[in-house]
Amino acid sequence: MRKADLSASLVVFLVALPLCVGVAIASGVPAELGLVTGIVGGLVAGLLPGSSLQVSGPAAGLTVLVYEAVQTYGLPALGVLVLGAGLVQLALGVLRLGRWFRAVSVAVVQGMLAGIGLVLIAGQVYAMGDVSAPASGPGKIAGLFSLPGAADPAALAVGGATVAVLLLWPRWRRGARVLPAPLPAVALASAATGLFDLSVRRVTVRGLLDSVQPPSLAELGRLTEVGVFGTVLAFALIASAESLFSAAAVDRLHRGPRTDYDRELIAQGAGNAVCGALGALPMTAVIVRSAANVQAGARTKASRVLHGVWLLVFTAVVPGVLGIIPVAALAGLLVHAGCKLVPVRELRGLWRGHRGEVVVLGVTAVAIVAGNLFEGVLVGLALAVAKTAWDISHVQVETEDRGAAGMVVRVVGNATFLRLPKLLDALEAVPHDRDVRLELGGLRHVDHACAAALERWAAARDHERVATITSTS
């Protein structure tokens, strides 16, 4: 093991610790379950082949879906959902379908992350003020107007100060090289809360073993329910997409071995299967921890495995330390994480060159906020497919007047039923008193509806003037 991997593992551990706890609380489950997932991400997924430097654990991207699942089916069912998702991921990896996740529209993925970020921000702003958040996405947003009067000023100050430290700490380059921003932000918030004896809500801690709840046979039987099975698929597909997109991003940060997407999917599936067996949160590869791992100088998978070891040692030896952390500070941490999920910079570039993609992104995000994560992604995918079908169905009718020799009409592009009205309008505008030669050599695709329309038009013209049709190649 290299010294660089040892130091990188400590950096990743410091980043992962508050995030594991914060994601768990935001998901509506005990804090320890987030730590269990972080440990499994290091010790199980970290040991398996796939991506050598990306780090797995509970992710903010699944917070909304997990919270909804726990509210709908109860905490005991969480293990079944995660176990089922892990088995689906294993099957996808064995069938070598991992690479196909790269075919998902980038606009849909960015819209998914933006929607998750907006819901996460809206929900955690309430936690920053020690106030219970409304259940629905629109309700959270509508309730923000009355939040200032209901929030606890002390808690809101702690959460706001945490966000301020997260924004300002990276500007101090020397300090940022030594400690990642989440650790000093949470540590300072905890110290201030204790020093001034602020009466704000703190993290509730139980023993690590007490929080582990393997699913019972009765809960396993719920996999036959349509709603439960749909949630399992949502867990599996979204976690897989997030992990593999994270892998692609991490590959751009280093010059080491590239990710094997199918093996990485198997590693994620194995990790989630273990998390499910322990009743813990689902895990994905997390870009924040992975980027910290690369930037800290990691060279091999030893760093991510060791980060799991440090999480295990910490929760086993000094779990009581978690009890001094104010919930408002963790909420501030997740508000900051939610802001990072909204792709503001990418929107500018997309708007200049691909405004249709911005529409797909925006509709996906709004659908997630208004409904839920799974439905929002389905809406986004359907819109992306419809946009692609529309984009590739462009067809043009070009006319050339050759005097006494008649006219040449060329049809080029992709003739599909989506553009059939435009095609017919252009053909019917051709003068009826001229000989016409119809050339279809420029067509790349002709569907049945357009082929039949062209044949009818040619047959009708044949009664007036001879129309010669050049077949498409």
Automatic annotation (TrEMBL):
Q: Which InterPro entries match?
A: SLC26A/SulP_dom (IPR011547), SLC26A/SulP_fam (IPR001902)
Keywords of the record:
Membrane, Transmembrane, Transmembrane helix
Write out the annotated subcellular location. Membrane
Q: Which residues cross the membrane?
A: 6-26, 73-95, 107-127, 147-169, 226-245, 265-288, 309-338, 358-386
The superkingdom of the source organism is Bacteria
Note the topology in the membrane.
Multi-pass membrane protein
Q: What is its main location?
A: membrane
Residues covered by the SLC26A/SulP transporter domain? 3-363
Q: What is this protein called?
A: SulP family inorganic anion transporter
Organism annotation: Streptomyces kaempferi
